[in-house]
Design a protein that fits this description.
heterodimer, A: 590 residues, mainly beta, five-stranded mixed β-sheet, four-stranded antiparallel β-sheet, 35 strands, 6% helix, elongated, B: alpha+beta, 32% strand
Chain lengths: 590, 269
């Protein structure tokens, strides 16, 4: 149960406060306790909290006080039904140490915008109550309009006894005549009902409330095929027995997750609203949080906010990596195909080596055969006759031709095929040719330097460079640094990001022909800003803030395995989904 | 298993030269060699089996049967050709392979493709519609155009070359076809898979490029949104390959993601 009075006192003082906040939390002044399910009204988002009032956001990322809800009391919920909004709230008996005589009330409004001339709440209607000493505390209402039946349900209750549910009329808000309350859970609070794929989920909050950074508040759920339960958790416990599968709990610098609400952005893109009892980066205050909902094996769990970093952006369609359309620049080959096993490497495959010296390597490895240290001798090389002939273009940069310790590890390894030296080169590639001539035991494996941006950037076009997908090889043209752009605003649950090639200012951008490209410099233009939503299956939807010349909402998608484009969101198509693989630690070995 | 067999068969001659006679004295190696020998005999016996008779000439699941040109191509019928049910274009004019030595397919960067495909190998390369049997002089080569219907969705260039007893590796193929559309069709994409790299032009404009060491994959690379005009649209392609198999598959995909099938495919302008 909650310490309502203290919370209510605190809220008045928070209005208008702006803090410097991390990109991980809603920005503005998102201070609230027991936020109602977020509702969109005329392009703005609203949530109401304990004590009256609530928050408004124009983009879903920056929240400030301003929503108005009369009646005070605790823990409201809100729902749009037809062209009206139904708000449920509770008149409380006093909380943990107080009385338990509560009332669940509902009221209607045509709009949630307090500036609208239509903004006027109807008279509250009582739909349930609890007396001073029964095993229920009639507060913390949660609403569900059953999409299967059109019936409207209210759950309510706290740790003091049972969570109960009643049915009300979706046209009037009145309690259905003759409806009897049913107990559906015990010893939890802030309940909410949702429906997905044939299951009804009852969510409730367990743990300690209202104790700042010491709050253990956490959200759990059970599910049932029937709207009235029984709601069973993942190990078969009824929520009437205290069961519940964890949905989200505190972590990092935010503690005490409570008062779940679900917002479906689009098919496959869902958000949960909740409050953190304490955001340590925001003075330990209770704040609104919005997290992706991931559905794992039929259970909702809290996804993570996107984290800034350097990533491979990988298509769900094929697993290929988004990259600039630039020539692939070969790098030192390292240990060779069978490096650890003693083959000493195949040398290069033609294009790998333009140095005449390397090109000779394949055919000229008598050292392997002579040395006696590679007992099996060496293969003469498949490209022995024409070294280098097939290497006209592959790697033009001297840097790539340098080093070439390719054959070394293999040459030094007596295992496997017994130190065959090297196969030579497939036509003069022979990146490891010279090294392979070393006596086998001398060669100790050495790190091979990763290709760096400096190795290749001078050869990149200076203007626009189109993008595509290809095998991820950790190359500079495949590594994207993604950072929030605070001044660009955001969307429900996140800020807009810029997506640039790591180490550059070259930015991913949408084009007027509904394609994607990269521009040499990030300018902050809307087509260079990206919304990143984690989907219900854990993949990501990536969409530009705007596409020049159209108001259509388009997402980054795969047209072919290797061809990105912009198109309409379709959760049922892997073409529209992406994954981010953190490459921040994929550091260069020098 | 196939890969292992291939490996052993390919390398056995060298192994015999370099391994058998240099390491035969050690007991350990004798065991290893025995294993290799058994494996080799197993593979060789499989290859010695001439197969199960003629069977269906298009049944390429028959083991140990050398595919022929007819397995993959048939002469152009007099029937009006349309793309197949999945939209793949099967009717093509193919030029016998141009000698273009490359020992590896890794050299096919975008720059390489553009530079080498923009060269003129024969007159009218980007403008003319060849006819079946027409010859082109490319350097020292005298090469002939062939009109074929592919028997499969993919045009098996390797078998085109081998079937004609032409060079199969280090080659550059040119292909031409004409899409006759009953109406203007906007926002289609040319979807190409090719082994190895390739470049394609629609009505003289570059449509799509597939660079790198590629495998043939349906819808591997797609063009941007294109417009097919009512009437005839000339589609040209060039496929380059060093070692290994070579083929391509081409279709148009509509804006709704479905293949374009309500067009005709012809070889005459």
């Amino acid at each position: 149960m909650k310490q309502y009075k203290n919370i209510i006192k605190g809220f008045g003082a928070l209005v208008g406060i702006m803090l410097s906040q991390s990109a991980m939390a809603q920005i503005g002044a998102p201070f609230i306790h027991d936020p109602s399910t977020i509702v969109e009204c005329d392009g703005k988002y609203y949530t109401f909290g304990t004590g009256g009032g609530g928050l408004i956001s124009e983009d879903g990322w920056t929240w400030n006080s301003g929503a108005q809800r009369p009646g005070g009391g605790a823990a409201p919920d809100a729902l749009k039904i037809g062209d009206r909004y139904l708000v449920a709230y509770s008149a409380t008996g006093g909380g943990l140490g107080g009385g338990h005589a509560g009332r669940i009330l509902v009221m209607w409004n045509k709009t949630l915008d307090p500036e609208s001339p239509d903004f006027k709440f109807s008279e509250p209607i009582e739909v349930a109550k609890s007396i001073q000493d029964e095993d229920c505390d009639a507060i913390d209402a949660g609403l569900l309009l059953d999409p299967k039946t059109g019936r409207l349900w209210v759950t309510y209750g706290t740790y003091f006894g049972h969570i109960r549910m009643v049915e009300i009329d979706p046209k009037t808000g009145e309690r259905i005549k003759g409806n009897k309350a049913k107990n559906v859970a015990i010893d939890c609070e802030a309940s909410d009902l949702i429906y997905k794929d044939g299951w009804y989920y009852l969510l409730g909050t367990h743990g300690t409330c209202c104790d700042g950074g010491n709050s253990t508040y956490n959200i759990v759920c059970g599910r049932s095929k029937n709207v009235t339960g029984p709601f069973i958790d993942n190990v078969g416990r009824d929520m009437l027995e205290g069961g519940g599968r964890m949905v989200i709990a505190g972590s990092g610098r935010t503690w005490g997750a409570g008062h779940f609400g679900r917002f479906v952005v689009a098919e496959g893109v869902e958000k949960m609203s909740l409050h953190w009892e304490a955001d340590l980066d925001q003075g330990g205050r209770s704040v609104l949080a919005i997290r992706p909902i991931i559905w794992k094996n039929g259970w909702p769990i809290g996804g993570e906010l996107f984290k800034e970093g350097t990533y491979e952006i990988e298509s769900e369609r094929r697993g290929y990596s988004l990259e600039l359309v630039v020539d692939f620049v070969r790098m030192n080959r390292g240990g060779g195909m069978f490096g650890g096993g003693g083959f000493g490497g195949f040398g290069g495959f033609g294009g790998g080596a333009q140095r005449p010296a390397n090109a000779q390597g394949g055919a000229q490895r008598p050292a392997n055969a002579q040395g006696g240290q590679a007992p099996a001798g060496g293969f003469p090389g498949f490209g022995a006759g024409a070294p280098g002939a097939g290497a006209p273009q592959g790697a033009q940069r001297p840097a790539n031709a340098q080093g070439a310790p390719a054959g070394a590890p293999g040459a030094g390894a007596p295992a496997g095929f017994g130190g065959m030296g090297g196969f030579g080169g497939f036509g003069g590639g022979a990146a490891g040719g010279a090294q392979a001539q070393r006596p086998a035991q001398q060669a100790a494996p050495q790190p091979v330097a990763s290709q760096t941006l400096a190795d290749v950037i001078e050869d990149w076009p200076k203007g626009e460079i189109r993008v595509r997908m290809a095998d991820y090889m950790g190359r500079p043209h495949q590594r994207w640094t993604i950072t929030a752009v605070p001044e660009a605003g955001g969307y429900l649950g996140g800020p807009y990001y810029k997506i640039i090639i790591a180490g550059t200012n070259r930015a991913l951008a949408a084009t007027a022909d509904k394609e994607v490209t990269s521009v040499p410099r990030f300018t902050g233009a809307p087509e260079q800003l990206w919304r990143i939503d984690q989907c219900t299956d854990g993949t990501y939807r990536i969409m530009p803030k705007a596409v020049p010349g159209t108001t259509e909402e388009l997402v980054l998608m795969s047209a072919g395995d290797c061809t990105p484009t912009l198109g309409k969101w379709d959760f049922n198509s892997d073409n529209c989904k992406w994954n981010f693989k953190d490459m921040s630690k994929d550091i260069t070995v020098r | 298993m196939y890969g292992i067999s291939f490996f052993i068969l390919t390398f056995v001659p060298n192994m015999q030269t370099n391994i058998f006679f240099t390491t035969i004295n050690t007991k350990t190696n004798m065991k290893a060699l025995l294993a290799i020998a058994v494996a080799s005999l197993f593979c060789m016996s499989a290859y010695a089996n001439p197969g199960d008779g003629d069977g269906d000439k298009n049944d390429l699941t028959k083991e140990n049967v050398q595919p022929t040109l007819a397995d993959y191509f048939s002469p152009v019928s007099k029937n009006v050709a349309k793309p197949d049910a999945k939209g793949f274009i099967r009717r093509w004019l193919l030029l016998e392979p141009i000698d273009k030595p490359n020992r590896s397919n890794t050299v096919f960067t975008d720059t390489y493709i553009r530079e080498n495909f923009s060269q003129q190998y024969f007159p009218g390369q980007f403008t003319d519609i060849p006819t079946d049997g027409k010859t082109e002089r490319v350097g020292e080569q005298e090469l002939k155009w062939h009109a074929f219907d592919a028997t499969r969705y993919n045009v098996k260039l390797f078998r085109f070359a081998s079937g004609l007893e032409k060079q199969v590796y280090g080659v550059l193929f040119w292909a031409v076809t004409i899409i006759d559309s009953p109406e203007d069709v906007s926002n289609v994409r040319l979807a190409v898979g090719s082994n190895s790299a390739s470049m394609w032009w629609l009505n003289g404009e570059e449509a799509v490029i597939l660079s790198g060491d590629r495998r043939m994959v349906v819808d591997d690379v797609m063009s941007g949104r294109l417009n097919l005009k009512k009437g005839k649209n000339v589609l040209r392609g060039a496929v380059i390959n060093g070692p290994g198999m070579s083929d391509f598959c081409v279709r148009f995909i509509k804006e709704n993601g479905e293949p374009l099938t309500n067009v005709s495919v012809t070889l005459t302008k």
